[in-house]
Design a protein that fits this description.
- The chain has 2 domains: 194 residues, Ribosomal Protein S5, domain 2, CATH 3.30.230.10; 127 residues, GHMP kinase, C-terminal domain (Alpha-Beta Plaits, 2-Layer Sandwich).
- It is 39% helix and 24% strand.
- The strands form 2 sheets. Strands 1, 2, 3, 4, 5, 6, 7 and 12 form an 8-stranded mixed sheet that branches.
- Helix 2 packs across helix 4.
- The radius of gyration is 20 Å and the shape is globular.
- The two termini are 18 Å apart.
- The structure holds (R)-mevalonate.
Length: 340
């Protein structure tokens, strides 16, 4: 717990839902992601001693601490990895420009840090809690040490953090956490384009199963290495769907968006990343009258999404619950990272 009267910075960032393009976006293709109204927040304070302290009770991290000189080394608990590497990357990049008033100049390189995270959502939903906490960490340190960073500078440092921790990943969830709204995004932040979306009547169904994104992404990579031509065609097909979906979303053509969701789900089934539970929930939603439905994220578990005409909303929610899903109250297209 952060108790004393030192300056405290509080930052929050939203979680995300992938609308179109998962997996293909790891291989240079575009995707469409939206931010959700469930957020991660982080409180940050400077420490007098050159020590990093983290409390993240939602992921069972209590009073985890180590000398700054050990950041990134040794056994790091899973729940602490993204935050620890975000701190390490921030200090490596910006240590030399931390203003001298935050410590005497001899100790400037050792400005210690205390962080505490709180999540409004369970890390098991697949809303990107690790990425949102890396974004919050970088923004909080920049505010704490009064260093001005652009959104793209935060993105680049957070993306390095994701690659340091899990090796593979597109960074789409970081973009949602930083910029908010609904974004057309290309791998590694090559394009980050906000889309003008008015209203997206989504239903979100949670499978109750936590997907292990890093493992699923590695499995898909192994499949790609085995069948490169086949999978390349799938990624090209998904990219075409994403481009059509961008136009349909901007025109608010919900029927077309729904049909494109169904097409995208077909490709995800072919990639082998859906699951019996996800597919049951997706079919239940479609049969109950959804414009379309698909999994959202890595697959294997986490959440599915359905686009619902308002007259069918209740029936679709009931159908999803009947096959064992849990409907989550989620609003989309919300604000990005901010000082609170
Ligand atoms: C996981 O939520 C989405 C993936 O496309 C991985 C990524 O983009 O980093 C499977």
């Amino acid at each position: 717990m952060i108790k004393n009267m030192k300056k405290t910075i509080t930052i929050s960032a939203p979680g995300k839902l992938m609308l179109f393009g998962e997996h293909a976006v790891v291989y240079g293709k575009p995707c469409i992601v939206t931010s959700v109204n469930q957020r991660i927040s982080i409180k940050a304070q400077k420490n007098d001693e050159p020590i990093f302290v983290l409390n993240a009770p939602d992921v069972e991290i209590n009073n985890y601490s180590k000398p700054l000189s050990d950041l990134g080394n040794g056994e790091i608990p899973k729940g602490a990895k993204f935050v620890e590497f975000a701190v390490l990357n921030f200090l490596e990049k910006y240590r030399s420009v931390i203003p001298a008033r935050f410590a005497d100049s001899a100790r400037r390189a050792n400005a210690g840090i205390q962080l505490e995270t709180v999540a409004q959502f369970k890390s098991t939903f697949g809303f990107g809690s690790s990425s949102a906490s890396a974004v919050c960490t970088i923004k909080a340190l920049a505010e704490l040490f009064e260093i001005k960073l652009t959104e793209k500078e935060i993105f680049d440092l957070a993306y390095k953090t994701v690659l340091d921790v899990q090796g593979l990943g597109s960074g789409f969830d970081l973009a949602a956490a930083i910029y908010g709204g609904t974004l057309y995004f290309v791998t590694g932040g090559k394009t980050i384009q906000p889309l003008a979306i008015s209203h997206l009547p989504l239903i979100v169904g949670y499978t109750g199963v936590k997907a292990d994104t890093a493992t699923i992404v590695k499995e898909v990579k192994a499949r790609f290495e085995k069948y490169p031509k086949l999978l390349k065609n799938i990624y090209d097909g998904i990219a075409m769907i994403v481009k059509e979906a961008k136009i349909a979303l901007e025109k608010n053509d919900l029927e077309k968006v729904g049909q494109l969701m169904n097409l995208n789900q077909g490709y995800l089934e072919t990639l082998g990343v859906s699951s019996e539970k996800l597919s049951a929930m997706i079919y239940a939603a479609r049969i109950a009258g959804a414009y379309g439905a698909k999994l959202s994220g890595a697959g294997g578990g986490d959440c599915m999404i359905a686009l619902a005409p308002s007259s069918k909303r209740k029936a679709i929610e009931k159908a999803i619950e009947k096959v064992g899903g849990k409907v989550l109250e989620v609003e989309v297209n919300t604000e990005g990272v901010k000082l609170t």
